[in-house]
Amino acid sequence: YEFDYVPLNNLVALYDAGTLDTKPLIILRHAKAMARSDWKGGQAVDDGRRPLHDFGKQQAKALIPTISAFGPKQVVTSPWKRCKDTVAPYAVKKKLAVIERHQLSELGNAKRPSRTTDVIQDFVERNKSVVICSHRPSLPTILKTLATYAPLGLRKQINEATTLRPGQMLVAHVNRSGKKPRVVAVELQESILKAE
Known about the structure:
alpha/beta; single chain; 6-stranded mixed beta sheet; 7 helices
């Protein structure tokens, strides 16, 4: 049919440009955590140990097929319990080691956002698929860094992902065929169990 030529020609153009060969870089906000006010009676204590809510534990398990669809070979996370517990079911299922980076925690990012930037740049530059789990307060630094690898048309979409809900993820498709890696497409995905 005549209308089939447009998408097919676009596909051929993308193939000729070498942009179809991508690896996913997934930015995942941890699953639903226990409310700060409910944990330890709302006392100001080490928030890094605050666990997932029971719903968040179910959500983490429900993320397995969604993350699996992109096949990340590396699992990177903030060392805080709620992040580790979000990616653990996927890592166990796929028999992958979990790499902890304190720069991805709320505290690590607040103290030295430049180090959070360095971690994200490192994983964008690697030619491996990866899921990176972090916290809402760290997302602006993470996404701003990722956006530097994207054309203007995608930067807005990437930067808007600072509003990811618990268990939601931004999947950046990174092409590394040129001198510098570049994000050629992005999409939002989440667990079938949605947190409000």
